[in-house]
Amino acid sequence: MKKAKGSLKVIFIISFIFLLVSSVSAQGKIEFGFHYSGWSMNVLRGLIEGMLEDGLESALKDDFLSDIQGDYPYLEEESYEQNVSFDSSGDNYGFELRWYPGGHDGSFSLGLSVEKTTMRVALTDISAQMDLNPDAFFEAGGSAEFLIKPLSFHLSFRWDLFPSSRIRPYFTFGFGAATAAALENAELSYSYSGELNIQNQIHESYSESETKTLGEIVEEIEDDDEEFTLPGFFPFIQLNLGLKGEITRNVYLLFDAGIWNGFMLRGGLAVRI
Once rounded to an integer, what is the mean pLDDT over residues 110-134? Predict the structure, then answer.
């Protein structure tokens, strides 16, 4: 019975979509499209690395010093240096339905899309050196990564310039959201190893690595009787410029670039009915 009810729901949804498309198509033109994008934040790498240098210095230094003083409480920090390298990568693909109320040569269109995005931001190389008194030196290296793969739903507004031309530039603005599950399942991982040298005689090694989801981290915080709540959704902002080329009267190639919670380069194919 449950399977039958599920099948009826799917049939109803598909029927509703066809009725909607038929109704809207009678007033304008509908486009079905598929696209694939590369994603990155590396355009801002220098700025991000500078911000991370300042933001992480105190936290990492305190963590390293706490580990060392747990074994050698008499050692005191004298100086500390740190370098951080940033990298990011990802991709996106999606299916889009666009409505051109003005018909074939209309400029404005309204789009609905389902998107799957992978975003990875990482500290690929964290290096630190600390001089300690009396006569000790600590050197460490590590890395960290945040990975999220949201499935999101989007609404976008597009304006085609010179809509009757075979090649036309366009501008798109849009927004979307994924559910809180995307944040709960996002993974945070890190690892580091370090070597402490005291008076060139004692050598002590330190290392640690861990991978957790944000959901698990929240549970640990709550277990410590502290309150922390993840946002109820993961938002997206889209802002991009592109070119649309007409292969035939109803088939188009699209190439664009812009902002997608980072920066993206996108190619796609659209068919108008």
Answer: 94
Mean pLDDT (whole number) for 200-214: 88
Are the C-beta atoms of residues 256 and 240 closer than 8 Å to each other?
yes
Instruction: Work out the average pLDDT over 104-115.
Output: 92
Other CB atoms within a 10 A radius of the CB of residue 187 amount to: 15
Strand partners, 244: 168, 254
- Tokens coding 175: 């927004």
Q: Of 63, 91, 90, which is closest to residue 77 (Cα–Cα)?
A: 63
What is the SS3 assignment for the chain?
CHHHHHHHHHHHHHHHHHHHHHHHHCCCEEEEEEEEEEEECHHHHHHHHHHHHHHHHHHHHHHHHHHHHHHCCCCEEEEEEEEEEEEEEEEEEEEEEEEECCCCCCCEEEEEEEEEEEEEEEEEEEEEEEEEECCEEEEEEEEEEEEECCEEEEEEEEEECCCCCCEEEEEEEEEEEEEHHHHHCCEEEEEEEEEEEECCCEEEEEEEEEEEEHHHHHHHHHHCCCCCCCCCEEEEEEEEEEEEEEEECCEEEEEEEEEECCEEEEEEEEEEC
Please name the amino acid found at residue 89: S
Distance between CA atoms of 59 and 80, rounded to whole angstroms?
Answer: 12
CA distance linking residue 30 with residue 26, whole number of Å: 9
Peptide bond into 73 cis (omega under 30): no
Q: How many residues can be counted in the chain? A: 273
